[in-house]
Each structure stands twice: as C-alpha cells, then as structure tokens.
Amino acid sequence: MMDGRSREQAMRAAMAAAAQVHGTTSPNPPVGAAIVDAGGRLVGAGATQPVGGPHAEVMALRAAGERARGATAFVTLEPCAHHGRTPPCTAALSGAGVAAVHYAVADPFPAAAGGGDVLRAAGIDVHAGLLAEEVSRGTLRAWLYFARTGVPHVTWKYASSLDGRAAAADGTSRWISGERSREEVHALRTTVDAVVVGAGTVRADDPWLTARAPDGGPAGRQPLRVVVGTGDLPPGARVFDDTAETVVVRTHRPDEVLAELAGRGVVDVLLEGGPTVAGSFVAAGRVQRILAFVAPVLLGAGPVALGAAGVSTITAAHRWAVEDVTMSGGDVRISAVPARQGD
User: What is the DSSP string of 56-115?
Assistant: First the structure.
C-alpha cells in the first residue's frame, strides 16, 4: 500500500505531465495523469492533448499498457463521465482494470462532473482532494475559474520600480525589470491563450507581444495577441506581423472584451496593458491574479503602473492576498489574488 508521501509524489508526476501541455488544450483543461502499479512503480504518465485528442487518463493508460491492471491512477482533475469529442475517461479507467483512483480537484463543469461516483459504482476505490490547493493554483487555475463563471481568467502582469513607476519621466521603460524576469514573462506567454494590451500601448511602445525562446527567436507556441480600444493603429505595428494571430477589439469595456475572447475559446488571459487599461480591468473586478515584477530601481517620477481603478477613498481600496513572493534574478516577483472578505 502506498503511503502519503508516495501518493503525493505520484500526483506530482501527474502535475508535471500537465505542465508540459499548459497552454495547448483550451478550451479543455490541461490535465495530467500518472499510473502507479501495485509495487509502487510509475508505469505511465500522460496529459490532455489539443482539442479533439485523447484526455490525460487515456494517454497515461496507453503508456502503462497491461501494467495498468490493478494499478492506481493519479489525476489532477476528476475523470470525466460524459461523452464529448472523446469517450468518457471513467470508461477508459475501468476498462483498463485500474483498482484505485486519486484525483486532486472535483470537476465543476456540470456536464462532465460525477466521474468519481461512476468509478465507485464500477468497484474502483476513489479518493478526492490530494494536493487540491496546489493543483488549483497551478495549471488548472484559469480553467477552473472559466468553468465556474464562463468568463476568461485574467492575470495582470506588470513590471515597476520600487517606487511604483512603470516608466521614467520621458516614457522610457526598457528595461525596468531584469533579464531573468523577462525570460519568465516569455515563458508565461507560451502557457496563456491570449495577451491583451490597449491601443495606446501599441501606439506608444510598438510591442511585439510574442513569446520568445531563450535564443531570442519566436517560441514554438504563440498566444493570441489582442489589442483593445478605439483610435487608429499604425499599420506597420509589430503586433500585425505574421508571427502570431492578432485581434483588435474596438471597445474599452472589459466585459465586452472578455465575452469576445470567450467566444474564441480563450480561457487564460495575460493582461499586459498600460495603466489605463489595467485600471479599467481592476475597477471592473475582472483581474483574478496580479503578477508583479518589482525591480530595485528608483525613478521618482514617471507613469505609474496602475491608473484610475474606481477608488476615491481608502475604504474602497481593492484588497489583495499575497500568495507567493520569490526572487526573479534581482527583482522581486509577487503573485497576489483577490482577498476574501474578512481576510
């Protein structure tokens, strides 16, 4: 019988498999699975393939083959019990002769939920909740929010000086953050569905908004580039090159922008706009995570990172809970989520 540490190691193998496909599965969730035989050996791992392809459990079972019989499956999301583009994963698990299933997070999507009960009815030992919090804050974060609300998950990413400036007084901003932080941002772009900026940022900074590989060339996967707002855009702007697809959404209203993106199958959004567009998303309550790279630089003047966000007095301040603080080279990387009432 596996002990608690061995079970956690197996779930982490499933999480590692999910990380390999993060950004390639939308609107489906990036799920990972691992198969451990009765002797405690990892005999198969796999992750959800792009839309229309096999789910994580099927990929892991294929890797395990006959060794799956009598084994334990570890899955980051409750196995689905419905027949969509692919057959239900519950049938694949029971058909392979799996003896037990541990999953981290229950499926909040009504059409697919209930897989745990289906597996129990088939005589399989089922356990829920293993590393649930860690999984929920990892690759499944955006999809879980989308499944519960129907609205894409938005991470607002920005870089600033210690005194909160996003650029110097003359508007120059390259580079406030260090090389390591910029590398992290490019890696992050490969895992999201879309990168959003305002039209003003395109006119002022001419960003490329692509994900770049360590060698400086384009990464193998590129997010959708989204420009929001009105006014003319330079026809030669770099966001209109052929490196990645670009969509222009002619509105400043976050809900309209997000509805447009949801219709395109976008689940995970990285907001990289300037202070005006960032302020509008924060004011509308449409930012679910802040990812700040704070550099050990003092500017004293210049544009701030966040513009008007609907706050006129301290009691109306948007409150956030810091979930992680790490070093990114010489910068401080802060991840924060909306504070729950009473925190």
Answer: HHHHHHHHHGGGGTT-EEEEEEPPP-S-SSS--HHHHHHHTT--EEEEEE----TTT--H
Contact partners, residue 48, CB within 8 Å, separation at least 6: 18, 21, 25, 28, 29, 30, 31, 32, 54, 55, 56, 59
Question: Which residues are CB-contacts of 223 (< 8 A; sequence separation ≥ 6)?
Answer: 23, 189, 190, 192, 193, 194, 195, 209, 211, 244, 270
Q: Which neighbouring-strand residues pair with 125? A: 100
- Over its C-alpha atoms, the chain yields an Rg (Å, rounded) of 22
pLDDT digits (tens, 9 = 90+) for 136-176: 999 999 999 999 999 999 999 999 999 999 988 988 777 88
Q: Examine the residue annotation and report whether 179 is marked as an active-site residue of this protein.
A: no
Domain 4-143 indexed as CATH 3.40.140.10: yes
Between the CA of residue 174 and those of 128, 161, 170, what are the distances in Å? 47, 12, 12
Q: In the CATH scheme, what is the code of domain 151-338?
A: 3.40.430.10
Catalytic residue among 57, 78, 184, 272: 57
Cα separation, 266 vs 228, in Å, equals 15
Q: What is the pLDDT of residue 110?
A: 77
In the chain, where the domains are located: 4-143, 151-338
Global pTM value:
0.92
Partner residues linked to 198 by β-bridges: 228
Return the structure tokens found at 215: 């060698």
pLDDT digits (tens, 9 = 90+) for 205-222: 889 999 998 888 888 899
Q: Is the preceding peptide bond at 27 cis, omega within 30 degrees of 0? A: yes
